[in-house]
Design a protein that fits this description.
Elements: H1 3-18, E1 20-22, H2 26-35, E2 36-43, E3 48-53, H3 66-75, E4 82-84, H4 87-90, E5 104-106, H5 107-116, H6 120-130, H7 135-148, H8 171-181, H9 185-191, E6 195-199, E7 206-210, H10 215-218, E8 222-230, E9 234-243, E10 246-255, H11 258-269, E11 283-285
Antiparallel strand pairs: 1-11, 2-3, 2-10, 4-5, 6-7, 8-9, 9-10
Helix pairs in contact: 3-5, 3-6, 5-6, 6-7
Length: 294
C-alpha cells in the first residue's frame, strides 16, 4: 500500500470523524448545543452521522447502562429461568419495582421491568443472578462485552447505572451499544413497551411497569429506546424513530431539554413527520463544546 494512499485514507478518516452533515439551521443547532453536554445522531439506513457534539466526551451514562444489562440477559439463554429475589437484589434506590425477598420471577420479567420503568431492583436482580450470586462477576462480563462490540471509552461498575466509582461512557460508545442491541427483535419489542404487567410466580402478586419515555406516548414514530437520569449524569436519552425509509438513532447526554430538543431533531431530519416546517439545507459544520463536564 503506497504512502500516498495511506495519507489520503488517514485524511478521509479525520474528516469523517470531525465533520458532520447538519440538517438543523444554525440557530436551532446552537440552541441544542447549549442544552446538551454530548450528542450524536445517526441515520441507521444510510449509516450517515448527521449531528454531533463532543461525542467522545467522558460522561456518566445513568440508566442507559441498562441496555447492556438487558443485552447480556437476552444473550444468556436464561430468559425463562426462575429468579428468587434476595436481600442484596433489592437494596438499591431510587427507582424500584418493589420486588420482595423470596418472590420468584421469570428472568424475562425482570429484564422488561429494568428496561421499561428502569427498575433498579430488577436490574440488580439480573446482575446478581447472571453473576451466579456475584454482581461483580456480571459487571466484568459487561465490560468484556463492551470491549468486544467496540466500546472504546466505557467502564461499568454496576448493572443499574449508579454513579459509583469509575462508571462512565461516551455518546459514541452508547451509540455503538444501541446499534448492537437493536439487532435483537426481542430487545426492540421491550424498547417500545409503554407498560408491562407481570406477577410473582409463587405469590401471584401483580406488578405494573410504566415507561419514562415520553416519546412513546406522544410521538407515533418513536420506537425506543431508553431514558436515564442521575444527579451527576443529568437527563439522558437514547431515542429512535422510523419513518419512510429513515431510521434515526440519537444519543443525548446531560440534556437540559431532552424532550423538546429530540422532537426538533426528528422534525428536521424527517420533516414529513409533522409537516410543521421545511427541512433546512444540509451543510457541513463543526460542533464545539461550550460546557464543562458536570
Amino acid at each position: 500500500m503506497s504512502h500516498k494512499f495511506l495519507a489520503l485514507l488517514f485524511g478521509a478518516c479525520l474528516f469523517t470523524n470531525s465533520l458532520f452533515a447538519s440538517y438543523l439551521d444554525k440557530e436551532t443547532s446552537d440552541r441544542i448545543k447549549k442544552n446538551v453536554d454530548s450528542i450524536i445522531a445517526k441515520d441507521l439506513n444510510t449509516k450517515q452521522l448527521i449531528f454531533a457534539k463532543d461525542e467522545q466526551k467522558i460522561i456518566e451514562p445513568a440508566s442507559l447502562t441498562k441496555i447492556m444489562t438487558a443485552t447480556l440477559a437476552l444473550e444468556s439463554g436464561k430468559m425463562n429461568n426462575i429468579v428468587t429475589i434476595t436481600k442484596e437484589m433489592i437494596q438499591v434506590e431510587p427507582t424500584k419495582a418493589g420486588l420482595r425477598v423470596g418472590e420468584k420471577f421469570y428472568l424475562k420479567d425482570l429484564v422488561k421491568a429494568a428496561m421499561v420503568m428502569s427498575a433498579n431492583d430488577a436490574a440488580m436482580s439480573i446482575g446478581v443472578y447472571l453473576g451466579d450470586g456475584d454482581v461483580d462477576k456480571f459487571v466484568r462480563e459487561m465490560n468484556q462485552k463492551a470491549k468486544k462490540i467496540g466500546m472504546k471509552n466505557t467502564n461499568f461498575t454496576n448493572p443499574c447505572g449508579f454513579d459509583i466509582g469509575n462508571h462512565y461512557s461516551t455518546a459514541l460508545d452508547l451509540l455503538t451499544l444501541s446499534e448492537y442491541a437493536i439487532k435483537s427483535n426481542a430487545f426492540n419489542e421491550m424498547a417500545q413497551l409503554k407498560r408491562y404487567d407481570f406477577k410473582a410466580i409463587n405469590t401471584k402478586r401483580n406488578y405494573a411497569a410504566y415507561t419514562h419515555n415520553r416519546l412513546l406516548n406522544n410521538y407515533k414514530y418513536a420506537v425506543g429506546i431508553k431514558t436515564g437520569y442521575t444527579q451527576k449524569a443529568g437527563p439522558c436519552l437514547i431515542a429512535r424513530a422510523k419513518k419512510d425509509g429513515k431510521d434515526i438513532l440519537v444519543v443525548m447526554l446531560n440534556s437540559e431539554h431532552r424532550w423538546k430538543d429530540i422532537k426538533v431533531i426528528f422534525d428536521d431530519v424527517m420533516p414529513d413527520v409533522t409537516g410543521t416546517r421545511p427541512p433546512a439545507k444540509a451543510k457541513i459544520i463543526h460542533l464545539k463544546s461550550t460546557k464543562k463536564r458536570a
